[in-house]
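Contributing new records

If you add data, match the layout below exactly. Sequence lines come first and carry their own label; structure lines follow with theirs. Keep one chain per record. Anything else will be rejected by the validation script.
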Amino acid sequence: MVILSSSPILQVKSLSLSNPFLHGSSVRAASPTFRPSSSGQKSLEIKAMRSLQGKVVCSTNDKTVAVEVFRLAPHPKYKRRVKKKKAYQAHDPLNQFKVGDFVRLEKHKPISKTKTFWAFPSGRKTNVEAQADAPEELSIPLESAS
């Protein structure tokens, strides 16, 4: 018969566990977040928000525009890139956008059930603005064949 000097329970308790998730402790990954500081120091801001560009297709609702966004996605069978479109509801607080305007959408806190984007002016011009900026006539006179 072999007599142990220490019990097996004491040997198990003395082992240090390398996994921090055992026994209810958890380790959270430190992820940088945006926290406005009261002092003049610059704080860390992460731009992981979704940003889209599209064309306004409906602006009849108050402070809301419907924006159609096109994207290219691979066809599941033929692997060719196919143009797909989707309409998003976006917040337009000043009612400044009209049908045909190009806007940039940025994701924000949900405003309603369907509105989670804010509409901002895009650098692109609409066809109406591009035609208005074009010169009316060329300065070179055209010669006729007479």
